[in-house]
Design a protein that fits this description.
The chain has 2 helices and no strands. By secondary structure, it is an all-alpha fold.
Length: 91
């Protein structure tokens, strides 16, 4: 029965433990980086959602605005017609 390890085995275990420690530190660093990126993406998505809600609010009445614009064109045409009949210069 062997109660002690050979020098080569001790060195092997030390190298294995050192590599394991480096791997653990690298994994922790990569997980931290992943959390940073996820938070950054989440912040960007929240900003995009806020902008989209603003756009939705600005365009909620677009059909009404387009109808008003068409009506304004008709009113402007009518004003020009009346101005011609009255002999007045219209813009």
């Amino acid at each position: 029965m062997v109660l002690a390890l050979a020098a080569e085995e001790i060195t092997l275990w030390q190298v294995t433990l050192a590599v394991g420690a480096v791997v653990i530190v690298a994994v922790a660093a990569l997980l931290g980086l992943l959390l940073y990126f996820v938070r950054s993406i989440e912040t960007g998505v929240e900003r995009l959602r806020d902008v989209a809600q603003g756009v939705r609010g600005n365009t909620a009445n677009i059909k009404t605005a387009l109808a008003v614009a068409d009506t304004l064109d008709e009113v402007a045409d009518e004003v020009r017609h009346h101005a011609r009949l009255l002999g007045v210069s219209a813009r």
